[in-house]
Amino acid sequence: MGSTRKPPANGEHIAILPLRNSVLFPMSVVPINVGRPRSVQLVEDLSGQERALVGVVTQRDPNAVEPTFDDLHQVGTLARVIKVIRLGQNNYSVVLNGLGRFRIGEPVGLEPYMQAKVDRLRASKSTEPNADLLAQKLRDGTRALMALLPDLPRELSGILDNVHEAGALADLVVANLPEDLAKVSERQQILEAVEVDERLILVMNLIDRQLSVLKVRDEIADQIRDEMSRSQREYVLREQMRSILEELGETGEQDDIDELRAKISRLELPEEASATARKQLSRLRGMQPQSAEYNVARTYVEWIADLPWHKTSSDQLDVKRVRQCLDEDHYGLDLVKKRIVEYSAIRQLRKDKKGPILLFVGPPGVGKTSLGRSIARAMGRKYGRISLGGVRDEAEIRGHRRTYVGALPGRIVQALKKVGVKNPVLVLDEVDKMGADVRGDPAAALLEVLDPEQNSTFVDHYIDLPFDLSQVMFLATANDRSGIPGPLKDRMEIIEVAGYTRMEKVQIAKQFLVPKQLRDHGLTDEQLEITTEGIELVLDHYTREAGVRGLEREIAALCRHAAVRLAEHKGEAPPARTDADFIEQVLGIQKYRPELAERKLSPGVATGLSVNNAGGDLLFIEVTRMPGKGKIHVTGNLRNVMKESAATAVSYVRSRAERLHLDPEWLKTTDLHLHIPRARAARDAAGAGLPMFIAVSSLLLGVAARPDTAATGEMTLRGRVLPVPDIKAKILAAHRAGIKTVVLPEGNRNDVQDVPEEVLSNLDLRFVERVDQVLPLVLEEPSGPLAGSAGEPDSASAPDHHVT
Ligand code: ADP
User: Fold this and answer.
1) Element (H, E) at 334
2) How far does the centroid of ligand 1 lie from the alpha carbon of residue 507, in Å?
């Protein structure tokens, strides 16, 4: 150890001065306050002596006032008393100079102050080269610490420069570290480290620990400083911008942006959406509010802010309630309702939400869309409608990229914004009316929307962020199932809604349409009494449709009229009643006459049945003849489709000429002209083969077909009658039009099951297998002899008896 002064002999008996909460190290000079009675006694005893020595030992427990040897550490520092300064009565300051380490050997006594025999401790010499290296590290570390902590005592740097002996260096460095860097227990541990290496390492550890603490603290401070200066900078810039904008009179825009920003932060958007919105907002700050770019960016952020990223309405999945809602909103439709209830039960059980999408197929006005609304109501969900009729561009579904001028999101996203929740019922209307062209196939985009594997991350081109569609419940409607793109149809479960009978329509009007229209027009049923007779009158003479949309429109017209009348009379108008006069006054002269059975058809006219997008309807076929070479002309919209059927019918008549008493020679000199006035689409013509045969036969035989009889069916050259689709809709149409007998292919017998009993009981259905069976069923009793060529050559008889 570094003392050159004469050490006390081992086992020497010395006075012990206990220290409460500090450690004296060899080599250091330290003033110590003394106040406890024993210590005062000791100081007073020593103060007369020249070069008095004292053993300074730290207490284990700083609170012990009169410590015993058990309360002291075993290792202390032998010190020389340099100076005693009297501060007051029983109060001294003693300046001590540490000399070297000792260990208490044998206590001698506690009074008048502690005394003990002590053994001097020395380091062994062997570790010195290592110690020099460690000492160098300690110097470096301490210098680094001093650079970071300018408050460290100045003495330290002198020590680092001038103290060459490693052990002393360690002692002096700790001795000069402030309290908070080296605790008493740590100092004592270092004091007890007699070997120099160990001592150096312990001190190094202290310094290193402090360095890393400071490093972390600095890093944090740097971060805080960066944050501070950035936000200060932004603040200053913003203030500048604000004053510039004020100068330019454009503060309104700025407020808008602030509002948007506030809205965005309120909304808790998904991470990605929120980052995108913020980025756009900061771009906005720098832009000219008048510029096109500004508007594009702003509209975009508004779209993001307006989408229901998280918002949902809570589901009420109760099958009973579904049934109840459907019944409350719709009359009849029992099969349809049953399937919807089944469907919702399954949806309730299947948590994965997979499974087909319900597709309602049927003519307009049969309640397809309003069924969708009921389903939404039953499930407690919001309802939205997306009209797909005429959509040919993929971007209509999926949006335009924002690089396009006037770009907008697709209809799905638009609908979501409108309903404001992410789990609505969305009805895709008229999926059969979509087309595809060079701008991409909307059906393909729609498939992606509907696919449960893909739609949880649906990306609209405009929004350009994934949006979760998996909670949307999609429904679809169509008029014509053949118009639905194949892959889409595969994803759907088709529910046919064919149309209503007259009786059903009356009930729908009484129970639903009339109360609704009265309510909508603010009328009571006393102010306008809509009678059953009135409804029937409207139904028979002002509408001809499978659904009830026209009926509802006419009822609305009646209500409107009554409301206007009431307003004109300041609410004092006498009650109105829907008698024939009132109806004719409001709706004009009758548009339709259903008394079809009463009118007469000329030979050459036959009644068929067709189905188009508006439901079932009658189809009239007219044939005339003229001198010629046995040719057949077909005119009307359906020329191409009909030509074959016509040729088949004519060939069949010819092949049976003899049986029908027709002169084959005469046929060779007669041209036939077939015309179908009302048909619009190929679908209309399915089943026209049989009526064509009837019309041709009727003409050639000169016998009229019965006006109250209609036929549908295809035929082969050999005279077999083949089944055709849409039987239910056709029968309903026949019934609506007052037809009494319907001739049907035997192969369609099973399709009649779906037709309401009310209709069946009023119709005479005749099923035929062969064409031969048909004529007796449909032709009038011939008035004269059935004459082959004697049929009145009435080329001018283009019959115009059909009623439209
Ligand atoms: P679609 O979508 O099939 O064209 P809508 O759903 O628009 O038909 O229906 C037209 C109108 O007829 C709506 O007001 C609807 O409420 C009413 N309606 C249709 N079917 C029924 C029914 N079975 N019961 C009561 N109202 C009906």
Assistant:
1) helix 334-349
2) 13
The reply to whether ligand 1 has any atom less than 6 angstroms from the CB of 369 is yes
The per-residue pLDDT for range 362-379, each reduced to its tens digit, is 888 999 999 999 989 888
**Distance between CA 124 and CA 381 in Å, rounded?**
88
Residue 725 token pair: 């689709």
- pLDDT score recorded for residue 681: 60
How far apart are the CA of 343 and the centre of ligand 1, in A? 20
Cα(620) to centroid of ligand 1, in Å?
29
387 lines ligand 1 (CB under 6 A): no
Least confident of 89-98, 342-351, 684-693, 709-718: 342-351
pLDDT given for residue 803 in this prediction: 33
In the predicted structure, residue 721 carries a pLDDT above the cut 90: yes
- Of 620, 617, 621, 622, nearest in space to 735 by CA: 617
pLDDT tens column, 490-545: 888 888 888 888 888 999 999 999 999 999 998 888 889 999 889 988 988 898 88
383 within ligand 1 shell (Cβ under 6 A): no
pLDDT, the chain, mean: 83
Q: How far apart are CA 170 and CA 197, in angstroms?
A: 10
C-alpha 73 – ligand 1 centre gap (Å): 99
Q: How many whole angstroms from 323 Cα to the centroid of ligand 1?
A: 17
Atom 5, ligand 1: which residue's CA is nearest? Answer: 367
Tens digit of pLDDT for each residue in 547-571? Answer: 999 999 999 999 999 988 888 887 7
State mean pLDDT over 151-165. 86
What is the structure's pLDDT at 156?
87
C-alpha span between 500 and 477 (Å, rounded): 17
Contact, 694 vs 705, CB < 8 A?
yes
User: Which ligand 1 atom is nearest residue 477's CA?
Assistant: 2
CA distances from 244 to 240, 251, 254, 297 (A): 6, 9, 11, 21
Report whether 379 contacts 322 (CB < 8 A): yes
pLDDT of res. 292: 78
- Side-chain-side CA neighbours of 201 within 13 Å: the count stands at 7
Which atom of ligand 1 is nearest to 373's Cα?
A: 6
Cα(97)–Cα(56) distance, rounded to whole angstroms? 10
Ligand 1 pocket mutation pick from 366, 373, 386, 428 by most atoms within 8 angstroms of CB: 366
Identify whether the C-beta of residue 797 lies closer than 8 Å to the C-beta of residue 675.
no
Q: What local confidence, expressed as pLDDT, does residue 441 receive?
A: 81
Provide the angle, in degrees to the nearest 10, between the axes of the packed helices 334-349 and 368-379. 40
Which of 228, 475, 208, 466 has its CA nearest to residue 359?
475
Cis peptide before 112 (omega within 30 of 0): yes
- Residue 782 CA, ligand 1 centroid: distance in Å: 46
Cβ of 367 less than 6 Å from ligand 1: yes
Residue 362 CA: nearest ligand 1 atom is: 3
Cβ of 366 closer than 6 Å to ligand 1, yes or no, is: yes
pLDDT of residue 58: 94
CA dihedral 16, 17, 22, 26 (to 10 degrees): -60
Distance 733 CA to ligand 1 centre (A): 18
Task: Give the Å distance between the CA of 42 and the centre of ligand 1.
Answer: 112
Q: Residue 3 above 50 pLDDT?
A: no
